[in-house]
Each structure stands twice: as structure tokens, then as C-alpha cells.
Amino acid sequence: MRLKLLGALGVAALLAGCSNDHTNTGANTGSGAAVQPSGPVPGSEADLVANVGDRVFFELNQSGLSADAKTTLDKQADWLSKYPQVAVQIAGNCDDRGTEEYNLALGQRRANAARDYLVAKGSASSRLTTISYGKDRPTATGEGEDVWAQNRNAITSVQ
Amino acid sequence: MVSISSRYLPDHEAEALAEAFGPNGMRRRSLLGGGLAMGAGLVGGLTATPLSAWAADAPEAEITVDQARTAPIPIVIPSFGPGVGEQITQVVTNDLSNTGLFKVLPGSAMSGTPDFAPYKAMGAHAAVTGGFSGSGSIRVEFRLWDVLAGQQIQGTAYTTNAANWRRIAHIIGDVIYERMLGEKGYFDTRIGFISRSGSVHQPRMRLAVMDQDGANCRILSSTQTKLPAFSPVRDQIAFLSYASSVPRIYVFDLASGHQRIIGDFNGVPLGPHYSPDGSSLVVPVAKGSGSDLYSVNIASGAKRQITSSGGAINVSPSFSPDGSQIVFNSDKGGSPALYIMSASGGSARRLSYGSGHYGDSVWSPRGDLIGFTRISGGQFSLGVMNPDGTGERIMTQGYTVESPSFCPNGRVLAFSRSGPNGGAAIHTIDITGFHEQAIPTPEGGSGPTWSPLNV
Lengths: 159, 455
Fold this sequence. Notes:
- The structure holds 2 protein chains of 2 kinds.
- Chain A is of the alpha+beta class.
- Chain A has 5 helices and 4 strands; from the N terminus they run ααβαβαβαβ.
- Chain A has a domain at 57-140: CATH 3.30.1330.60.
- In chain A, helix 3 packs across helix 4.
- In chain B, helix 2 packs across helix 4.
- Classes of the chains: A alpha+beta, B mainly beta.
């Protein structure tokens, strides 16, 4: 119950924080002035990225969800419940400190971990697909732990 | 025919060799047969005719090399003639030089039985003479001579379509390799790989195949592809494709250009790996938090699960040449390490105990070594160890060096090397760790898989 409540508050805060998003709904036309559409369309990929967080991060060779990761996934679950028409794909990614084939399996393990958490939070599994890119799609390039940490993730995207 | 023995190296050079090439050194095998079957990628036919020795008192000889070697064998290869003749000479020269086992010396062309005195004076142990004639249909004549004994070792005339000149050169290189070193060569082979283009963040990854020296590169797929595996017995490459919404395993027939889907897995298939007879694939299938190995019959599609990971990741399976055992990569012990088990499954014995993570397990076609990638201290290494886990030896290191694949005679590995900003390229290195070379490809390259010797 507490989680659900927090989720609802989160959505309310989110709506308050991006009122300009709702130009098309006619909700903000009271002043009579034309409001230029700006900011992400609700339920869109950009909305997910800007207002929820599209990705969670993992430790080296791990697929366990950290407290931060769970917080982000909680928000994703709420967002998914708000936009029931949206289907998402969860892509598991790895840093390049592993072999191609192991990382392909590890990326799948991470994507599955994120998916399973969302399902446990009430998202329908039929709306969630997973894919692993192994280490083929690094967010950041270069050398060092800062770079690698960014690339160990599960990224949720709107399909 | 007369068999003779010839010592090519002083004794003091023989020792390190034994270490590099095993206790038996390099030993001659039987003489090559006179004919050659039609081969993969061959345009028209190919006829090979034995050439008798020039002089009646110079019968064909067989060289026996009982010593292992460290120093390259000096061999004279004069030009086979202008135009295509010279191109053939260059390919033969490159093939032999790239092994690091031959030192090719220039010489002036001679007809008939060579005058061995100048060859002896320049320190050559062997010499090649050859000629080229024709245009649409070509005839390439080639003889290998034992300079020290002053005798012909091999003489063959190849008649074929001109488009096959490059293969003829590789075949000649393989004949020289086999006659001088006592085991089959690997020049008349190809390497399947992933041709990489586009951005580092979202690369285009297409299946490609090229000759082992980088020539004749062809892109085979238009869709995203990963983890290719060349059949050990036929012109076929299995791979993981992202052509549909879910990744699937395909086999691509190189002769016909046809491909088909293999298996329908209750989970996500990863890279396919062939059994030694080419009849089945072992495929890791990811499900839940782990991945288990499944054996799939290519013809019937019948599947059998051969590991029960309990959530561990099992990948990179590779058969022993006799098909009885499988080496694979598993993190069931907490971090990725190499294990060996019976090919039918059951309990597995841990093989790697060094620090860091191990992966990319691959069994040499000779059976004597297992190649691997080791990741330790922030660096990748490429190494080999004995199948009992002893004798670990690192051949090369880098930001990433991975995906090793043995050539058919087990002397050389192809692998991919890349830096922190991408730029993956196919390299080869011999099992002693010498003679690393980049194979030129039109785009970037990763995931090499070596074909069997063309037949």
C-alpha cells in the first residue's frame, strides 16, 4: 500500500512539474494565450527518460538490483500503470570487461531481472519484452570505471 | 620414389622448438595425393597432375624433418612469371612468410632442374620453381626442390579457370607447408566474421566471409548478426540473427546462399557451436537468470538439454575433436571460469584457476590445447592451456583481445582486437605467441571463425 501511495504521489508531482506537456489536452488554455507545446509528450519515450528514468545500473558481472535501481523501477511501474497502452522493451547492456558471448548472457540476465521486478510490481508481462545487446551498445566510450559503470545497465524504451 | 632424411637445423636450435610445437616436433606425413577434389568457391574445375622429376637420376624425394624448429626455413621462391604468374608468387610468398616458419628469399627464375649452387650459397634449404600459362583456362606448374640434396620433392601442374588463380596459390602454399613441416597447411581456408560499421554506440553487424588472408571478402547478411561459427566439415556457417523480433539461430549454406532457422527455443538462444561431425549445434539458451546448453540436431531439429545451470550462465561450449567432451564457460563458481564435462552432460570439472575471469573456451582441432580469453587486472589476454588445466600460457594482451578460433591444423588462432573506443579488427597469432598480424577487412571485424581446409 505504501509503495502504491508513493507511486501515486510521484505521478502527481510529475504532472505538476510538467504542465506544459498537456497543451494538447486543453487543460492549460484558461488564460486564452496560445501555449506552445514543449517538453515530452506524456507516455512517450522522452517522457520516460525525462520524468521517470529509463535505466538502472549494475555492479560488474552482477545483475542484482540496488536500492537506486528499485526506486527507478518503482517509478517505471507506476508510469506503466498510468499509460496502459504503452509497451516497452528492456535492453540489458554490459561494459566491455567481459567476452562477447558471456556478456550477451549477462545482458539478458540484467534485462530479465528488471522485467521480473516490474512484473512483481504489477506490470503485465505481455507489455514487457527483453533483449540483450551484450557489450554492443555502449552508452559511453573510453576507458575506466566511470565509463564502464554507465554501460552496465538495463534500459527501458517505448516500443 | 626415394625417401631421404635431411636435418635442417643445428641441434642447439631444436630444443625451444619442442616446447613450442610439442614433444614430437614436426614430423612428415605421407606424400600428397596427385589429385584434388573440387573445392569451395572454385570457379569451374581444377585438375592437378603430378609432374615427374626433370632428370632420371633425380627421383622425387621425401624430406623427413624430425627436429622441431625455431628458426624460419630459408626457401627461394623466384617469380612464376609476369602478370598472374607474379601475383601467384606473391600470394605463395605471403602465405609462407606470414607463418613465421619460412624465410622467403628472392631468386632468379630457372627452367628445368635448378642450378643449386647459388641457392646453397644463399643458405636456402628449399626452392620453388614454377610457371604460368594460358588466360581463360590457365596452367600453373610448380616444383618444390630440396636444395641440400639437389632433388625434386614435389611437382604438380594445376589446370583451372583463371578466376581460381588465388586458390591455386594457396593450394601451392599448403603443399609446400605440408612437405616441409609434415602437417597440413591452412592457407586454402576462409574466415567467417562479423563485419562492423556504423557508430560505436550502435554498430551495424553483418555476417561476412573472407579468405584467410583477407582477400575476397563478402558480406552475407543484411541484418544484425552475432557469434558466427563455421561448420568443421562443410561450407556452412551458423550464427545468431536479430532479423526477427527475437534472436534466432540460422545456418547459412555458402554454396547455395540459402539459410534456415534452426531450433525453436523456450528462451533466448545465444551463439551456436558445432559438434566435430557438423551434424549438431550446441546452443546456450538464456532463461531466467542463467543460460543452459542445448544440443540441437541440424537435420531433425531434435533438442536435448545438457546442462542444468540453476541460474548460472553457461556459454562458449567447444567439443574435443573426438566429440567426447565439451569445454565451456560458466559462472556457477561465482565468476566466469572454464569447465570440462562429458559431451552428454553430467558433472563438470573446473579447469581454470588463475585470477580474474575466463571465457571464450575453444578446443584446438589437434586436441592438445584449449584456447581462452582471460580478463584480469583490467586487461584482456589470449591464452592456451592443456586440456587438464595445466600449462597456461598467454600469447597476447590488449584492451580487448577475444573470440579466439583455431585454424584447421591448430597452429594459429584468429581473434578480434579492439580498443576503448571500438575499432575492432581481426588478427591472427600462432600458438607460440609470435607473428601476430592484422587481417585487412573493408570494415571493422569481430568474432572470427575459421573454416576447415577447403576440399
